[in-house]
Amino acid sequence: MRGMAADPDIRMDVPYLLAGDIGGTRSRLAVFAPAGGFRQPVAAKEYASASFPDLESLVSAFLGEVNARVGGACFGVAGPVRGGRAALTNLPWVVDEQRLGARFGFDGVRVINDVAALAASVPLLSGEDVAPLQAGRPAAGGTIAVVAVGTGLGAAFLAWDGSRYRVFPSEAGHGDFAPADSRQAQLFLFLRERFAHVSRERVCSGRGIRILYEYLEGEGFAKEAEGLKQTIAAAPDPVPRIVASALGEEHPSALCRGTLELFISILGAVCGGLALDFLATGGIFLGGGIPPRILPMLRGGSFITAFRAKGRMEALLGEIPVHVIVDPWAALRGAAREALSVSPASRVAR
Predict the structure, then answer these.
(1) What pLDDT digit, counting tens, does each position of 288-305 carry?
(2) pLDDT of residue 3
(3) Is the confidence at residue 348, as pLDDT, over 80?
(4) Homologous superfamily of the 2-121+329-349 domain (CATH)
(5) What is the per-residue burial (b if ≥16 Cβ within 10 Å, else e) of 128-149?
(6) What span, in angstroms and rounded, lies between the C-alpha atoms of 27 and 15?
(7) Fewest beta carbons within 10 Å, which of 18, 179, 287, 314?
(8) pTM score > 0.85 for this model?
(9) Could you read off the pLDDT of 151-206 as tens digits, one per residue?
(10) In whole angstroms, how far apart are CA 280 and each of 29, 160, 200, 202?
(11) Whole-angstrom Cα distance, residue 101 to residue 200?
(12) What residues are paired with 110 via a beta bridge?
């Protein structure tokens, strides 16, 4: 369990907002003051998800430590949500709005897709919360797309309804991987022999980085130092090591760097395709755990080149702003924003 200590000034007469970012490996919970503008939580904790049998047990443990009165709650979960209910993709939990509301007496509860929670934060972000990759010229009220790259790949979009941006989830990460050049075509054939369906997520995610490394190694792209090779092979999650070795200033690994270069070109092409799918003239925002960690390489030019490489649509894509979300609280801030929308008591307190 990790997190920040609870604010000693938490008041029992204020209905706080409970926000959750629930993942298969780690889950984060936070409480926000309804009048605080969602800049930073008054208390937050990170837990190992597998340490709890269900979300109710996790929420109970957190609220027992924080001792705050909660008005509205919203939980972003890794998986599709239907009718306020979700079976998590990488965790044996079923999360249900009605069950949570009955257990804890919240005056409003929402369960949404985790990328939708990240997307809900976009209207709250300021210049210090993002790193630009392409300035572009955002269209007023234009659709905004959010692409989250972490263990998996997710996407959501925001549409202007005349008074505010509304969030819509998608499962675009599970769409088909479309090779953009001959190397990617060979990669596709390699993957087609191993998997029944080659999705965007298969190559454009944390899991995908490991696959790309193995592919390039097998193709003889570059010889890896034996010690590093063994370290990566033995790691439960080799992505941090691959990224660190690719970005090393003194002795970068050619194979690790080649892996990230291939990954970034695929990511750029995927984001360009999603920008066209959603007609995201308001901008593309890249979030999740991986983009901030590889920001120096994302700024190197190959991402934007691949992003724009859509034939007759190249000029349009050159006008679309592209940003990396660097605020670590963004998904929780978005969940808190959605919690406020279902909590009459918290709206009054604001």
Answers:
(1) 999 999 999 999 989 999
(2) 52
(3) no
(4) ATPase, nucleotide binding domain (3.30.420.40)
(5) ebbbebbebeebeebbbbbbbb
(6) 22
(7) 314
(8) yes
(9) 889 999 999 999 999 999 998 999 999 999 999 999 999 999 999 999 999 999 99
(10) 30, 11, 19, 24
(11) 36
(12) 74
DSSP state letter for 172: G
pLDDT of the residue at 85: 95
DSSP state of 311: G
**What is the C-alpha to C-alpha distance for residues 251 and 66, in angstroms, rounded to an integer?**
46
- 173-325 matches 2-121+329-349 in CATH topology: no
CATH architecture type of domain 173-325: 3-Layer(aba) Sandwich (3.40)
**Which pLDDT value is given to residue 342?**
87
- Can you give the pLDDT at residue 5? 47
Could you tell me the residue ranges of all domains in the chain? 2-121+329-349, 173-325
Please provide the DSSP assignment of 256-305 as one string.
HHHHHHHHHHHHHHHHHHHHHHHT-TTEEEEESSHHHHTHHHHTTSHHHH
Beta strands in the chain (DSSP E): 2-4, 16-22, 26-32, 43-48, 70-77, 85-87, 94-96, 108-113, 130-134, 144-149, 153-160, 165-169, 283-287, 322-325
- Answer yes or no: is pLDDT of 229 > 60: yes
